[in-house]
Amino acid sequence: MKGVPSVSTAQGELLFRAGFRLVKDWYLAEGGHEGPRKLWGEKPFNRIESLGFDLKTFLQLLAYLSRPPDSTSIERERRERGRALAIVKGLDLDLNLSALGKGIIRIYQKGFRSNALGKAALHTCHRIEEMLKTTYFEDAHTREKLSQISRSCSEGI
Question: What's the structural domain count of the chain?
Answer without folding.
Answer: 1
